[in-house]
TrEMBL record:
<dbReference type="GO" id="GO:0004668">
    <property type="term" value="F:protein-arginine deiminase activity"/>
</dbReference>
<dbReference type="GO" id="GO:0047632">
    <property type="term" value="F:agmatine deiminase activity"/>
</dbReference>
<feature type="active site" description="Amidino-cysteine intermediate">
    <location>
        <position position="363"/>
    </location>
</feature>
<dbReference type="InterPro" id="IPR017754">
    <property type="entry name" value="Agmatine_deiminase"/>
</dbReference>
<dbReference type="InterPro" id="IPR007466">
    <property type="entry name" value="Peptidyl-Arg-deiminase_porph"/>
</dbReference>
<comment type="similarity">
    <text>Belongs to the agmatine deiminase family.</text>
</comment>
<protein>
    <recommendedName>
        <fullName>Putative agmatine deiminase</fullName>
        <ecNumber>3.5.3.12</ecNumber>
    </recommendedName>
</protein>
<dbReference type="GO" id="GO:0009446">
    <property type="term" value="P:putrescine biosynthetic process"/>
</dbReference>
<dbReference type="Pfam" id="PF04371">
    <property type="entry name" value="PAD_porph"/>
</dbReference>
<keyword id="KW-0378">Hydrolase</keyword>
Length: 371
C-alpha cells in the first residue's frame, strides 16, 4: 500500500484532536478566505444582482490583506469573473446557495505546520424538519472539493453542524448555543455532554460555553455567530438590546448572565463588549416581491423581521469587515469594534442585501488559517 495514502486514511478516521490538530481563533493569521457566489433566485432578489454587488464589496475589503477564493457555479463563472477584481481568485465550485461559513470546511492546524479540515454533515439547517431549502446535495460536496484543491486531510465528523454555530478563542474555549447544537433537527440522539465531546475530539477544545439561544427570528436555529463571538482571548462581543418590548432584550440578557458567570478554558473571566442591535429591521414590500417563491425554500414575506446583528463581522488579517445595516447605529458599532481591534482597519460594507438572504458577512465567509 502507498504510505502517503495509508497516512491520509488514518488521518481521516482518527479524530483530529488526538493527532494534535486544533481550530485556531478567527483573529489568528489567515492564508486565505473562502466565499461562494450568490445566484439562487428564491434567496436573493432580482436575480441576485444586488447581492452580488454586496458580495464583491466584502471580497474586495478582505482581499486587501489576504487571498480570497470565490466559488462559482459554471453558469455564473463569466459573470463573477467580470464583476470581481483580477486579484480575487474565481474557481468553479458548485453550490446550492452562498453560505460558505456553513457549507464550507472548518479548518484545523497542527503545531508542525500542517493544515487539515473538519467535514461536518450538512442538512440545510434542519433537513426536512425546518430546513431552508431542498436539495442541498451540491453544498455537501464543497468540503471534499476544497480538500482536493488544497491537498489536505479531511476529517469526516459524525454530526450535523454548521460553521456559524461555533466560535473559538484558539486557547481551548468554544462558544455555541443550545438552541442550535441541541436542536432535534440536527442531532436528536446526542446529549449536551456527547456533543461537547465531539467538539473536543474534532476541534481540540477543552471547554464549551453554552448560551441558551441565538438571535430572535434567526433562520439557522440560533447560530452563535449572529449573537456573540470572541474578539480576543477572554473577550467577547455580544449583540445588545435595551428595548424591553423587543424579544432580543431577554435573549441578550440570558447570554450575558452565562458569559459573566463562567470562565474560559484558561480560567479567565470573560469581558463582554456590547454591540448595539440595529433596527429592528424588516423586509420591505419591494424587497419581497423580487424573489422567486418556491415550495422547497424558506418563505420571505413583507414585514418579516430579519435577524440583524453587527456581531456578524469577519476578522481579516489587517481589517475587520462589518455590516452597515442601520444609520442610527452603524457608527457606534464601528467605533466599538475599532476599539477592540486597534491594529486593524474596521471597514463597513452596506450589507442589507446579504441580510435579506438570511445572514450576513460572517455567514458568507470562511477563513483558512495560516498553519
Amino acid at each position: 500500500m502507498n504510505v502517503a495514502l495509508s497516512k491520509q486514511r488514518t488521518l481521516e478516521t482518527t479524530p483530529p484532536a488526538a493527532l494534535g490538530f486544533r481550530m485556531p481563533a478567527e483573529f489568528a493569521p489567515h492564508d486565505a478566505c473562502w466565499m461562494l457566489w450568490p445566484q439562487r433566485p428564491d434567496t436573493w432578489r432580482f436575480g441576485a444582482k444586488p447581492a452580488q454587488r454586496a458580495f464583491v464589496e466584502v471580497a474586495c475589503a478582505i482581499a486587501e490583506s489576504e487571498t480570497v477564493f470565490v466559488g462559482v457555479n459554471d453558469d455564473q463563472f463569466e459573470n463573477a469573473r467580470h464583476q470581481l477584481p483580477a486579484h480575487i481568485r474565481v474557481v468553479e465550485l458548485s453550490s446550492n446557495d452562498a453560505w460558505m461559513r456553513d457549507v464550507g470546511p472548518t479548518f484545523v492546524t497542527h503545531a508542525d505546520g500542517r493544515l487539515a479540515m473538519v467535514d461536518w454533515d450538512f442538512n440545510a439547517w434542519g433537513g426536512l424538519d425546518g430546513g431552508l431549502y431542498f436539495p442541498w446535495d451540491k453544498d455537501k460536496r464543497i468540503r471534499a472539493k476544497i480538500a482536493e484543491m488544497l491537498g489536505i486531510p479531511r476529517f469526516i465528523a459524525p454530526v450535523v453542524l454548521e460553521g456559524g454555530a461555533l466560535h473559538v478563542d484558539g486557547e481551548g474555549t468554544l462558544i455555541t448555543t443550545e438552541e442550535c447544537l441541541l436542536n432535534p433537527n440536527r442531532n436528536p440522539e446526542l446529549t449536551q455532554q456527547e456533543m461537547a465531546q465531539v467538539l473536543h475530539d474534532y476541534l481540540g477544545v477543552d471547554k464549551v460555553i453554552w448560551l441558551p439561544r441565538g438571535c430572535h427570528r434567526d433562520e439557522t436555529d440560533g447560530h452563535v455567530d449572529n449573537l456573540c463571538c470572541f474578539v480576543a482571548p477572554g473577550q467577547v462581543a455580544l449583540s445588545w438590546c435595551d428595548d424591553t418590548r423587543d424579544p432580543m432584550h431577554a435573549i441578550c440578557r440570558e447570554a450575558l448572565a452565562v458569559l459573566e458567570g463562567t470562565s474560559d478554558a484558561k480560567g479567565r473571566p470573560l469581558t463582554v463588549h456590547k454591540l448595539p442591535q440595529p433596527g429592528p429591521l424588516r423586509i420591505a414590500e419591494d424587497e419581497a416581491s423580487g424573489l422567486d417563491h418556491l415550495d422547497s425554500s424558506h418563505p420571505r414575506r413583507p414585514g418579516d423581521r430579519m435577524a440583524a446583528s453587527y456581531v456578524n463581522f469577519y476578522i481579516a488579517n489587517a481589517a475587520v469587515v462589518m455590516p452597515l445595516l442601520d444609520p442610527a447605529h452603524d457608527e457606534a458599532a464601528k467605533a466599538i469594534l475599532q476599539g477592540r481591534f486597534p491594529d486593524k482597519r474596521v471597514i463597513g460594507v452596506p450589507a442589507r442585501e446579504i441580510l435579506l438572504g438570511g445572514g450576513n458577512i460572517h455567514c458568507i465567509t470562511q477563513q483558512q488559517p495560516r498553519p
